[in-house]
Amino acid sequence: MASCTGYLLGCVFIVAALLQGATAAQTIHVVGDSIGWTIPPSNFAYQTWAANQTFMTGDELMFNFTNGAQDVAEFLKTDYESCNVSLTNAISPVFGSSLYITIETAGEHYYTTTVVDHCKKNQKLTIIAYGTPISSPPSSATSLTNGGFSLFLLLLLSTAIALF
User: Domain containing 43: what range?
Assistant: First the structure.
């Protein structure tokens, strides 16, 4: 019975070690909530919506709109503010419907549509994202260097517990 308990406890340590490397789930922000991505009604502002959100690198913005009726793109601040927006000066144009855009860097991001006059009708969104830039996942060698030693110690401890 004691060895069974030790074995079970060892398994718990192994699972805990494996979960240690897991990252927290990122947030998906549905832009405009139920209104979606469209010319906003007079009682709604995307900036007010954004002020009630906390954006982190790795989060996703989900833009809901009808394909062909809207688009969304990120622009430089000056183009965004003046509504000088077109596909040619967009930082990252995106097409489709129910699009997900991953926030990859911290700082201010400016989104609007290239549909004529929609920017001037306040279909635009500024967000401020916090966090560190998203990088590619570490190689397996780096992962072993960073977390491998603690995993080794947990395996050693669980084996010792199982034997006693």
Answer: 28-130
